[in-house]
Amino acid sequence: EIVLTQSPGTLSLSPGERATLSCRASQSIINTYLAWYQQKPGQAPRLLVYGVSRATGIPDRFSPSGSGTDFTLTITRLEPEDFAVYYCQQCGSSPETFGQGTRLEIK
Amino acid sequence: QVQLQESGPGLVQPSETLSLTCSVSDISIISASYWGWIRQPPGKGLEWIGNIYHTGSTFYNPSLTSRVTMSVDTSKNQFSLKLSSVTAADTAVYYCARGIPLGVVTAPHDVWGQGTLVTVSS
To answer: Do A44 and B105 touch (CB under 8 A)?
Structure first.
């Protein structure tokens, strides 16, 4: 099973700033099979990106990068609606696994 | 747009079987997609339970495989989850979701149901 470790646990930033979220895998993953989700309280997770593709309707301020075992989600110019919990997921081998999440909070 | 809706009991007795159904709207379940279940214990992270293809092929999380059964009903455009011998540790919000087929049995999930809280308690 591939373990995903996200850092930091909590990130405190202000609207307009840039956020950098990290996801490290215990084994190498083809980047096509690395996805990022956003979850707000009381809501289901929302797929943001997988591989280098943004999901439908996701603005281009969400930008994935990385390869091998180290992946990053960068959010440029934070908007108020971006403050939420973010999860990475690997879907290249069974079982699918998720990171423990990064909470992005308003500073 | 594609919509998914979970249904089933919100309270299950310990040692009993949890049963949930996901109704799919605005897309045929026999489209080229995987259909999955993911759960989230209160205040915790996400755990993949398994995926099913419209042909009935199933792929389960090894940690749950002895207790999980997934099935698909193409006539009703629904798929279902059964989890047997539940304990309090199975208390969670259960989500059904569509998987984007990428040529492997696992998938990113682009459409999710709203989730249903299932509590295991006597």
So the answer is: no
